Amino acid sequence: MMGAAAGMDAAGTAAGRVVSVAAADDELVRAVAAGDRQALELLYRRQAPWLAGRLAARTTSRELAEEALQDTFLAAWRGARAYHGTGEVPAWLWGIARRRLASLARRQPQGSLSLEIAGERVDLATGPEEAALGRDASARIRLAVAHLPDEQRAAITAVVYQGQTIEQAAEAAAVPQGTIKSRLHRARLHIRKELGP
Prior knowledge:
- By secondary structure, the chain is an all-alpha fold.
- The chain is built from 10 helices and no strands.
- It is globular.
């Protein structure tokens, strides 16, 4: 990171570069690789909301999800040169985020992972009882999502499971972004209530 900082001005923008708010994600990653902090900030503002939602859906620990999100963008800052543009930037970031969450979760005491990820992480070394409990937990979450009102279920599906941004989900549903945010909030409250403590 020290080498990247050498060609930067006091604001952290790569010397001679101005990043447009309309820049494509892959252009932002190239600018981040060149050490442009403004590009990283733009990338964060675009991608962090949906990443935060997907990470939060995979753990019961808000702190763990937030730490994984921050680690994701730190890793993106450090590893932007490794991105070769062969896939979409959101998929690249989600891959980093999943690995960071898994790494952080391994360091946590048992019970910090969400029920959903517990069902996805069936270890072959576990016994049949543990595997059954993990499947049961995943089934409970799927059932809670299925019980959501249609608009809330559509918002959760679009943002959390399909990885759309709030803006993309709002555009697809032809509603304001604030409506999507409130639907997501109500959906999360409903799911928490249905799953219990």
